[in-house]
Amino acid sequence: MDKQTVTIYDVAREAKVSMATVSRVVNGNANVKSETKDKVKAVIERLGYRPNAVARGLASRRTTTIGVVIPDVTNHYFAELARGIDDVAAMYHYQIILANSDESNTKEVQVMENLLGKQVDGIIFMGNIVNDVIRDEFKKADVPVVLAGLLDEQEEQPSVNIAYRAAMTDATTRLLKAGHKNVAFITGDLNHYMNKGHRLLGYQDALATYDIPYDEKLVFQGNYDYQSGYELAAAVKASNATAAVVSNDEMAAGLVNGLTDAGVSVPDDFEMITSNDSKLTVITRPQLSSITQPIYDIGAVAMRMLTKLMNREELAANDIILPHGYIDRESTKK
Amino acid sequence: MDKQTVTIYDVAREAKVSMATVSRVVNGNANVKSETKDKVKAVIERLGYRPNAVARGLASRRTTTIGVVIPDVTNHYFAELARGIDDVAAMYHYQIILANSDESNTKEVQVMENLLGKQVDGIIFMGNIVNDVIRDEFKKADVPVVLAGLLDEQEEQPSVNIAYRAAMTDATTRLLKAGHKNVAFITGDLNHYMNKGHRLLGYQDALATYDIPYDEKLVFQGNYDYQSGYELAAAVKASNATAAVVSNDEMAAGLVNGLTDAGVSVPDDFEMITSNDSKLTVITRPQLSSITQPIYDIGAVAMRMLTKLMNREELAANDIILPHGYIDRESTKK
DNA sequence: GTGAAAGCGCTAACAA
DNA sequence: TTGTTAGCGCTTTCAC
């Protein structure tokens, strides 16, 4: 049960070479005669030597570990991002330290400090909001930080996202085109920049195009989960809305069930479009028409971007926008 | 952008004490005069000193990092386990290196090696099967490994689970009691010990109690996902089954939708019970009656167990079984 | 192509 | 209560 017994020193002795040479073969350095390389490799194999990454990290000042702060792994949207991150991290031989933040500023700061203490080579940050406190933490980090599925109003950090505003315009337009005059906009906290500064504007853009006045009574805020969507159903039904665009799938699932339970038939009496195209969209009845977005890819691209930053390579663009789409299912009429 | 500049040495110099003393205050060692402690703390504050966990890990041979191997973060069941793990890990000041394995033996072995190379203090392993290859890897680990939501046929590793066999007996009995003679057993790969060695036996136990012969034609294997459940619907409908117990929620969601789409009304024509009580159970229509299990707690308890093992404390029990329950929803008749 | 040696930043005896 | 001094296992100049 005691850790690590065979060291680079043992290998050097057994192979009758210096530690430096062993280090070279372990790290694939070309400057080793192929015959010594073979000899060393044989000893490594025989002794079952496994390099100590901690010692290596201390000596080289690179840990090949990155930090990932996630609001909650249990949330499918973020889990999907995380999966994209982990896959390309593995591809580049990085490990991931994952930390749940619950979007609490206190926790976010604390996990950032932990991560930095562990000497991660970079950080990918997910969440719903970037405020001064956390922006400050980014500044204190001596390593690159990239945002995945998150926009900083200040645009200080590299990020990868989709065009939330345009996507919301598309979805709203789809409904307006069908003749709806009163389309509800159902979203999360409007203090979140992505909602207020992007989605809402996209919704308004569409209204403007159809010369429909913006009506605050048609915007509803939930907290992104199923229950809040379900509870919103009553208010939505009571409003004069005949359709809705929803910012995320869990709320949309709640809404469609809530509406159905309240005797409102979707899509006959009420049409709706959601935003994430997650598996939930096909589980609900009716299935949910949705904006499509490459969530996994957002994570993957963010991680790829981070590897470049860690290698001090130039970035072609600081804020990457991945393409989105739309798919018709059963919550809209043909 | 360069890492860590102020070291323990800088603090010592500024505070006019030795490194040892600084180390003591940082680690909360009691043997420091409170006035020197204050002095040192002030300097730490002023300089913005942040201990280097890598150096600490090398010197102390403890990294306060644990490895978590997970089949796929994107799977809600495992994500929930991971959340439980992370929460108690944070509570004990451990960080988590998360690695997706996709249940591929190759990947599992590889991530185990990575983790061990990083000198993690312990590992929590999740998956569906423990075979010789991976058992060997556990043996090679010089740190404790605990299984969460996974049983080893050999019972070599500490683990935490629920009584899958009894739970399945309960669910099956619920259906048998209602008068069903032909209850289907729908599960994942029967090569998985948890299915073959526990759930199936539990199903058979219930049948035996009701003197109903076991019929292989009533057992269906899927691969745990929505699609496979949906596709199984046709075969299930074609069989003489009038009810079913299902091993996981995604398959159950697929099955209920598949059945409904095929004109079979649940629960009127067909009753079913699922196993995880996840949010999916309330999203589907009808909502799914389910075995309830404390998934988050399984992760949490596994992590707690690991902390004990890492401290070389005695374990009261090697294989912990957490209580399960049952909840009636709409996929069974009252 | 290979080796010697000086750290990387910290902890943990052991002294004092 | 505090300081001194070895390391921890590796990378990385710098010589040879």
UniProtKB/TrEMBL annotation, chains A, B:
Key words, A-Z: Activator, DNA-binding, Repressor, Transcription, Transcription regulation
Gene3D superfamilies documented for this protein: 3.40.50.2300, lambda repressor-like DNA-binding domains
HTH lacI-type domain residues: 6-60
Xref: SUPFAM superfamilies: lambda repressor-like DNA-binding domains, Periplasmic binding protein-like I
SMART domains the UniProt entry points to: HTH_LACI
Coiled-coil parts of chain: none
Function summary: Global transcriptional regulator of carbon catabolite repression (CCR) and carbon catabolite activation (CCA), which ensures optimal energy usage under diverse conditions.
Protein name (database record): Catabolite control protein A
